[in-house]
Give the backbone structure.
Amino acid sequence: MVMHKRARIIYNPTSGREALRGDLVDILAVYEQAGYETSAYATTPEPNSAKNEATRAAKEGFDLIVAAGGDGTLSEVINGIAGLKQRPTLAVIPAGTTNDYARALRVPREDPIAAAKLILKTNNRFKIDVGKANDNYFMNIAAGGTLTELTYEVPSQMKSLFGYAAYFAKGAELLPQIKPVEMSIKYDGQEFRGKASTIFLALTNSVGGFEQIVPDASLDDGNFSLIIVKDSSLVGMLQLMTKALKGTHVDDPRIIYAKAKDVMVTPLDDQDRLMINLDGEYGGDAPMHFVNLKQHLEVIANLDEIPNDALTADMKKYEDDFVRGVDELADQTAH
Ligand SMILES: Nc1ncnc2c1ncn2[C@@H]1O[C@H](COP(=O)(O)OP(=O)(O)OP(=O)(O)O)[C@@H](O)[C@H]1O
């Protein structure tokens, strides 16, 4: 008897513009063509429906799990399998509005069937790092601060309309609420002790449109890129944001930029609440222990292709306007 490999597609019927529904038959056919006996599960509005199904399918011995939806669905699927001994391979079909992770894996983001077809390509399997934060897992970025919604809590509609520009608008609006917190950050035998306003632990360089926030990110080196932001003034933070667009923030004295596998973040004053955001969702408060699980998951990706993520003309213009606005603001405050 021939044993077939099995694939489980976990898809969110509501994500993005409900684009997946019409493509599902074709997507199933692609995985069948690749030799997988394939079935599909539609997620439900209940919390963790994608996560629970991912755990169930992995324990049932499925070889491949396809997470089809937005970053939220993908994050749940990763949380459903990352803690298991036997982990299926993960494929991603992006259908959300930001799809940061698919961008990092260079999975086509406009065409779900093209994304599925990566399974047919040779040289498409990569073992990549996964982040652990206390008992949760993340694949892209952990952010900590008094206000971790900084780059994330952008309403979906606004994201679809303005894409990447929406992050700036929202970021600028929220910045005045950021307050520095006295904290200890132990990282691979070193320690930062002092006031910091925000920290980031990144696994990829694909963070809400800031392609250069981690200019030298590697998906499989076992390290987080740790960014500790010491400044918290409005102008200072905005200036750092403009520098982050170009990747020049890493040399700024207001920032500590390091590579580390093990990071312990502890607020030093019990009164301070240091919230942690994992891949765009609230992930609990510090103290938090972060561990990089090196090459923990096998993913279907397109990493041998040359990146094709040039900023569109519109984004570029917005970026230029933003940089000019910040320069003017800095001038006014200086006088
Ligand atoms: N059948 C369903 N009906 C309503 N909501 C659902 C359903 N299935 C999943 N959800 C909800 O969808 C959310 C996850 O959305 P997901 O990240 O996949 O897409 P998105 O929000 O469109 O994408 P992005 O995060 O990129 O904006 C979760 O809050 C989940 O509870």
